[in-house]
Design a protein that fits this description.
Largest sheet: 6 strands, parallel
Helix content: 25-40%
Strand content: 25-35%
Strand order of the largest sheet: 1-4-3-2-5-6
Length: 312
């Protein structure tokens, strides 16, 4: 897959099969659109193109609203689209200036002149251009004039899946990993660099790797203990992940730390990818460290069972 960071980098295609959107999460609803894109391209000898915007338009258009955490970094989104078999990813920098482009200009300058769109596939509620003025109806009216066709994914097809990036964010914020993973079509993941902690886990018999996230714009699931898979240097291990303020020792700062099963390496400064498989329990305060230690043993047993159930 080729990635373009400006419109100027893109070379016009003979038969572009195009969709556009933020694609945060690249969830199963998005995958319906991408599969249709590939199907059309295959039948017509075309090439698939995804137009996406970065940063997320809402961060630019509504800066006064609470910061919206994202399901993907741009790099993660690009990798997911590559795995979906997309040919071209055009990343358009979203700015206040770009938000003022008219829907008519978006069609003529970007879809037609820059990309060479012959078929445009959009979701049923897709809007584009200044003040979201562009619609399926407008596209349908303009398409013949510009020499391309437009196809809308029917509302019932999208509603049948019942998925949205907002719904996934809500599930993660509530610790509902099962729902989030179901809608994503894969486990939700975070990645980050291992940093030094206070070694409390080692004292308790459960040494942990403290994680400094690669992106602080990504959504972190609800506080609690999770069964996770951990990838280090392309090797996958099982583990249990803690997200919380460590109330038993009167902690105040949120900590993200993982106990990796059957693992004994010095990995300070190295990167881990963590995939959430199951919420084991919410965070809670214990009377003393001995009570916490006993609970951690139960947590490990629960995590091992969850890992066994999921992978065997």
């Amino acid at each position: 897959m080729k990635i373009y960071h400006t419109l100027e980098d893109f070379s016009k295609l003979n038969y572009g099969v195009v969709t556009s959107g933020t694609f945060d999460g690249v969830h199963v609803g998005h995958q319906q659109i991408l599969n249709r894109l590939k199907e059309i391209a295959s039948k017509n000898g075309g090439e698939t193109v995804v137009i996406t915007f970065w940063p997320h338009p809402r961060l630019i258009l509504k800066p006064e609203e609470p910061f919206m955490k994202l399901l993907n970094t741009f790099e993660e989104k690009a990798e997911l689209l590559r795995l979906q078999g997309i040919n071209h990813l055009l990343r358009i920098p979203f700015t206040k200036e770009f938000s003022q482009i008219s829907s008519q200009e978006f069609i003529s300058k970007i879809l037609v002149e820059t990309i060479g769109t012959k078929k445009l596939v959009i979701g049923y509620d897709h809007r584009f251009g200044k003040n979201r003025e562009g619609s399926f109806e407008q596209l349908s009216l303009n398409a013949p004039m510009y020499g391309f066709e437009v196809e809308e994914i029917p509302r019932q097809d999208v509603d049948h899946v019942g998925v949205s990036s907002t719904r996934i964010r809500k599930a993660l914020a509530e610790g509902d990993i099962d729902t989030a993973n179901h809608f994503l079509g894969r486990p939700y993941s975070l990645s980050g660099r291992v940093i030094k902690g206070d070694k409390l886990g080692r004292v308790l018999g459960f040494p942990t790797a403290n994680i400094d996230l690669d992106s602080h714009d990504k959504l972190v699931p609800a506080e609690g203990i999770y069964a996770v898979s951990v990838i280090h240097e392309k090797k996958k291990c099982g583990g249990m992940l803690y997200i919380g303020t460590r109330p038993t020792v009167d902690g105040t700062k949120r900590s993200i730390e993982v106990n990796i099963f059957e693992f004994n390496k010095d990995i300070y400064g190295e990167t881990l990818q963590l995939s959430f498989l199951k919420l084991l329990r919410s965070d809670s305060k214990f009377e003393d460290l001995e009570s916490l230690k006993i609970q951690l043993q139960h947590d490990k047993e629960s995590a091992l069972k969850a890992l066994k159930d999921l992978f065997h």
